[in-house]
Design brief:
Layout (H helix, E strand, L loop, with lengths): L1 E5 L5 H10 L4 E5 L9 H6 L7 E4 L2 E4 L1 H12 L13 H27 L9 H23 L10 H16 L6 H11 L2 H11 L5
Parallel strand pairs: 1-2
Antiparallel strand pairs: 1-3, 3-4
Helix pairs in contact: 1-3, 1-6, 1-8, 4-5, 4-6, 6-7
The structure holds glutathione.
Length: 208
């Protein structure tokens, strides 16, 4: 049984969403990232103390997009992962990674600056720079949505799991304003039954 170490707004949602799409059995172990005393069992899994992580028999992994690729490679084939000979592959690969490396990672600096940094450090050059980078990169998502309903083309893939998480993170937690096309895209991807099940499973066992 695959164990997903996660938290309610963390990137573990990407992993749980993929597991639901692939109908694979798993369990979720919630990690309280704000706990003063960290769970030693969690730190043994990821001493770096960031979410998500998975355990699958003797495999332990971190990095949400790498985990998606592992699960699809290990338990696929799946239409969520176009093969290299598929014309959808280049766009799929680009947006799968852009969702984290190009968008969500850069969103973290404005996010923590706005909500966690001490007041005098909230408005800082690095956060403004990262915000502008994200806004320029979102133009690539915007251009893609002018042509196709999903990042890889006509069908939903794991690239949409990656990019959907980033857009939601930016809009809900980092003050990014999404275009009409981006909002319509999120409505489309998050209307999937697997997303709804993943959302519920990601919040299981948490106080309301
Ligand atoms: N690139 C990593 C980012 C991981 C990450 O930043 N996770 C956040 C939660 S979504 C976290 O645990 N932050 C706490 C920390 O890094 O101290 C991934 O995609 O898994």
């Amino acid at each position: 049984m695959i164990t997903v170490w996660g938290g309610q707004t963390s990137r573990s949602l990407r992993v749980v969403w993929l597991l639901e799409e692939m109908a694979l059995p798993y369990r979720v172990r919630q990690v309280d990232m704000l706990a003063a005393n960290k769970d030693p069992a969690w730190l043994a899994v990821n001493p770096g103390d960031f979410l998500p992580a998975i355990q699958d028999d003797d495999v332990t992994m971190v990095e949400s997009v790498a985990i998606l690729e592992y699960l699809m490679g290990r338990y696929g084939p799946t239409p969520l992962q176009p093969t290299p000979d598929d014309p959808a592959f280049p766009a799929y690969q680009q947006f799968l990674h852009m969702g984290e490396a190009g968008l969500a990672t850069l969103m973290m600096t404005p996010l923590v600056s706005a909500f966690i940094a001490p007041e005098p450090e909230r408005d800082n050059w690095g956060a403004r720079w990262a915000r502008e980078c994200v806004e320029r990169r979102l133009l690539l998502v915007e251009r893609r949505l002018a042509d196709t309903p999903y990042m890889a083309g006509d069908r939903f893939t794991a690239a949409d799991i990656s990019v959907t998480y980033a857009l939601n993170l930016g809009a809900n937690h980092a003050g990014f304003v999404l275009s009409d096309a981006q909002q319509a895209y999120l409505a489309r991807t998050t209307a999937r039954d697997a997303y709804k099940r993943a959302f519920d499973r990601s919040h299981e066992g948490l106080a309301a």
